[in-house]
Amino acid sequence: MSSEADDFGSNTKSLHFLLVPMMAQGHMIPMVDLAKLLAARGALVTFATTPVNLARIQTTIDGVTASALPIRFVELQFPTIDVGLPDGCENADLIPSAELFVPFMNALSLLRRPLEAHLQDPDLTQWPKPSCLISDNLQHWTADVARTLNIPRLIFHGPSCFFLLCDLLINRHRVELEVALEEKSSGSFMLPEISHPIRINKHEVTSVMGSDPSWSKYMESVRAAEESADGVLVNSFVELEQWYFERYQQATGKPVWPVGPLSLYKEELNTKETRGRVSSIDSKILFQWLDKQKVGSVVLVSFGSIVRNTIAQLMELGYGLEASGRSFIWVVKEVEERQVLGVEEWMKKFENRVEGRGMVIRGWAPQTLILEHVAVGGFVTHCGWNSTLEAIAAGVVMATWPHLYDQFLNEQLVVDVLKIGVAVGIEEPKLHDLWDDNEMAVKVKRGEVEKVLERLMGGGEEGDERRERAKEIKEKARMAMEEGGSSWKGLQDAINYVLESRQK
Question: Which CATH superfamily, name and number, covers 3-168+233-265+484-503?
Answer without folding.
Answer: Glycogen Phosphorylase B; (3.40.50.2000)
